[in-house]
Amino acid sequence: MENLLGLLRLRVRRGINLAVRDTRSSDPYVVVSRHHGWTKLKTRVINDTCNPEWNDELTLSITDINVPINLAVYDSDTFTADDKMGEAEIDIRPYVECLRMGLENLPTGTVITRVLPSRTNCLADESCCVWDNGRILQDMFPRLRKVECGEIEVQIEWINPPGCKGVF
């Protein structure tokens, strides 16, 4: 793919206080998409919980850093259509700005930048880009929209495969 800037590893760690869509609980999974649904990846279904632990790694091809990553949480149903449990967007531009700094040899745990919750992002809490053994990671807790409650814990990491344009 000639326009490929790189790959983004998205670790979908867990859901926190997700909405109940079955009698007392839910069977949640997350769908990750970009480009108006052209690329879709999904986590495993975790049965009978509103606090699932997925710890799934999904890898997205990135061709445009200005296109947000969409997260949609669903309740898996056997006999009916799956119920939507909320959605959120991740803006990767602050993370890419850290990559473009060209940092090297920082102590592990060094905070490079902080992204604060605002009306223009879905963050429930401050999100930091952190140096970790030669790579930059960003942990975040997007708050789900269009639902009564719920957050997702995710982490992003850039991967530069050979032959990609990169973000520099």
Task: Tag the structure with descriptive keywords.
single chain; 1 helix; four-stranded antiparallel beta sheet; about 170 residues; about 45% strand; mainly beta
How would you portray this structure in words?
The chain has 168 residues and is mainly beta. It has one helix spanning 93-99; strands at 6-16, 28-34, 39-42, 53-62, 69-75, 83-90, 111-115, 127-132, 135-140, 151-159. A six-stranded antiparallel sheet has the order 4-1-10-9-8-7, covered by helices on one side. Strands 3-2-5-6 form a four-stranded antiparallel sheet, with no helix packed on it. Strand 8 (127-132) and strand 9 (135-140) form a beta hairpin. It is globular, with a radius of gyration of 16 Å.
How are the elements arranged and paired?
Elements: E1 6-16, E2 28-34, E3 39-42, E4 53-62, E5 69-75, E6 83-90, H1 93-99, E7 111-115, E8 127-132, E9 135-140, E10 151-159
Antiparallel strand pairs: 1-4, 1-10, 2-3, 2-5, 5-6, 7-8, 8-9, 9-10
